[in-house]
Amino acid sequence: MTTRASSSRKGGANRGASTDTSDAIPLRYGDDPYVWACWLYYEDGMTQSEIADAMGVSRATVNSYLAEAREKGIVHISLEPARLASLTIAQELKRHFGLTDCLVVPSDDNARPLIDRLGGAAAQALPKLLKSGDTLAVAWGRTVLSVGEHADIATLQDMTVVQATGGTTATFSYTPELCAAAIAQAVSARCVNITAPAIVRSPTMREMLLDEPLLQEQFETLARANRILFGISSLRPNSTIHTSGFFESVSLQHYLAAGAVGVVAGRFIDERGRPVAGPLDDRTIGISLDMLREIGTRILVAGGFDKVPALLAALRGGYANVLITDAATGHGILRADGVTSLDARLSQKPKVTQTASSYRTHVKKFLNNPNQVVEEMLDGVVRAHAGYLLPINGSNRALVARNGPRSGKVGLVIGGGTGHEPCFLSYVGKGLADAVAVGNIFSSPPPDPIVQCATAASGGAGVLFVYGNYAGDVMNFEMAAELAEEKGIKVRTVLTTDDIASSPIEDREGRRGVAGNFFIFKIAGAACDRGLSLDACEAVTRKANLRTYTVGVALEPCSMPQTRRHNFEIGPDDMEIGMGIHGEPGVTRERIKSADEITDSIMDNIFKEMKAAAGDRVAVLVNSFGATPMMELYILFRRVAQRLEAKNIRIEANWIGHYCTSLDMVGASISILHLDQELTELLLHPCETAFLRIN
To answer: What is the pTM of this model?
Structure first.
């Protein structure tokens, strides 16, 4: 059954039926009763009488819907893949989390920004969710503002919109005041603002303000809210929480250390949706999590793969009973909560069951004690590369280059979790990084070894921190930077954000750092080695990051030494697109394709952002995730070269092999660095490490 939205309606009876059911159509079917009827009949297997009861129409009307859908070509053998995926995901989200309803926006190949798509979808859904006389509480954020910008509902009367949190004097466009005003204008409502700051100086100040009659009246209105519209913030470094300015007076590190994964209306929650206590609790003016949960209709609008942990936490905590998101995010939420049965339905292929004779439960590995794998590996690294690396203060968790740091030179410190070898350990040496801090598998190093690295790398000209954009790394490196500054070491930081699949282009700063780290470390190391100032080293490293583009694809997941089991399952005919390097699933799952088709898809996405012109130069990295052999990497590189040649783009330098892995994952990533003259010179600057030598 292929379903296409039909804008036309034929026949007076059908028009009347459509009007009668429009308010009752569940969000996931949009405004189209034809799609609703066809789904219930073909996918859910309901009889026409059962469908008539579910839709609130006559059996004859249902029969008319189904017949006309066939006549118009709306119905064929299967649902259109994008619509099928979004409906299937919406239905499973509704069932799995006990939601009242769910709307999932189909993927559209990033033709429009995700926030615009979500805002438009929520705007279309609001007439089904709001009624005249409602009091709607409104939280703040970019997506909430987008809803207001897209909505225009003239049919509601006697509506009240109330700001869910205190306000701010910040200049960004999605403040609580502006979000409430935009929604109020869209639904022709009276707008009640909370005329107090969202965060105040002290608990005493909060108590004084809440005693004011005006604030009491405003909070009485908030307490009457029977609907709430809100988004959610992740704790990624570029998230609304970090950029809003609301929390400048307190460190967010407390909440990160306590396990916070997201923020709902200014309140922090952990992965199970439980409130995370912290220094802001008694200083926040706005709706509490308990108040939010008591509201009858709780509409959560959010999307983006980086928000999956926060969204899952909100759903687990029961803060939303209506969810509006996108297909990739919805699928990610379900998989993160252990729902794997959906994958077979989305691929429209039966599950493959293995016979007992061929089935293995564990992956074979060369191990001694799995709990000592990192220490034993580091011992091997130091023994193998003693000519390049030296433990700092006897600890293999902080290593310094024997021929790196020198007086008057900016020091370069990199670091991250293990499991990515040869990254990060093997990029330490003359002309590259001066020191590396090492964490556990896929985990950030703690602050102490980072500080030790900064001290060892410092030559009096400052130290540059370069590392991937992950919450744990950001928290620990920021703490280390503060400690290093107390020691008199000036520190600058550049986060790597080359993974273009992990967030849309408008959220460029929220992307992950993946294999493109290789190029960014190389540029930074050369700049430091040439004696550039700290400002100049930081600037050129940022430029390299902004001009590096990576997409990863996995065919099989990795397995952790402690479990010797795959982190998740990929079907025999599927592949994961948009892989990170921490063993997590990709952003989307697709049917496996040929090597050229995979490469073309990656290059098409890179070309959309890179905007290179004929005659430009690039550097290319084709990187194995751990288990993909050189033979296959060269096949991928062959196609990359062909695509670049077709655009008359010259490959100035290339690397093919294991450069940033994810343990034993079967997969590869392609990274392109868009060069200019400065970047070319720095890329080719000599370096010598245990793994990389450029003369």
So the answer is: 0.69
